[in-house]
Amino acid sequence: MSDRRPDGETETTDSGRHEPAERPSAESRESSDAEGRTAPSTPPSEPDSSPPGGREPGETAGRGWATLAFALALVSLATAGTTATAHDTVLAAAGAVALAVGFGALGALALTGGLGIAAGLAEGWAEHRLYVWFATALFAGGVLIGGALVTAGVDLTEVFFELLMEEFDDEEFVEGGGEIELSATFFIVQNTPPFLVAILGALTLGLATVLIMVFNGVLVGNIATVVGLEVGFGPIVALLVPHGIFELPALFIASGVGFRFLHRAIQRIAGSRESLFTKAYLYRTALLVVFGWLLLVLAAFVEAYLTIVIAETLFPGLAE
């Protein structure tokens, strides 16, 4: 008999009986989350009902994420070497080596398709990238505002140092001989709360996330402009870029996750999404968050032990 289903509801079997066509499950009716749409009658390209590790990632995605992870592992090893030689800090160097091993393991899993790492990261990025770019635009807007404030006579450097000093008590400052030793642990502790708040900012309808992005942009733009006008913008770039290329993407990723979650919640309330959470969404989002936090940790090691070395090498006058 014919298997043709003209109305999409019944199909004719070989025995001549008409049976109801199999209806897709609630989870399978959710189309690609990267598109943010629902497709009731067609199964998605990323079925949420399948186990997270049940699919082999595409060859391109696997190679791409593996290459990135291995590159980050090399940066971690370089940081470990500089930490051990220039700072003679064995424990911190060991921490950087451990981070390199973590990135290396991530690259190996992405290359082999283990645990669906490459597929999860690729799908997570596809779903969140527009929101990450939105967070990037907010930060860039803040930088422009911060720079414009300088022309109005506003200098936020004192505010920045006051905020920094609040993280240390007087005893620590005196014991350091008037100097503060900024370790990787310090930067990890300082940067992790904003990272988490950027994600959980969805609970404030995104206001907290927007505030973090814009405020940090204003601070960076204002201080970079003020100091750059005094000592030149070359040293400023050398002092910001080495760790900034890891720290800022980490914060942008966290903000993108927060904005995406808010959008999903709005879709759920509006009725265009059947479920707020799915296994696949949680898996790929968790992978992206962990990857972003590892970038934040790498930024902490680079800022504490590598940035100054690079800046003083390029601009010897900074050491005076």
From TrEMBL:
Keywords: Membrane, Transmembrane, Transmembrane helix. The keyword Transmembrane applies. Residues 1-36 have a biased composition (Basic and acidic residues). The keyword Transmembrane helix applies. The chain crosses the membrane at residues 65-84, 90-118, 130-154, 195-215, 222-242, 248-266, 287-311. InterPro entries: SpoIIM-like. It comes from Natronococcus pandeyae. Pfam families: SpoIIM. This is Stage II sporulation protein M. Residues 41-50 have a biased composition (Pro residues). Residues 1-61 are annotated as: Disordered.
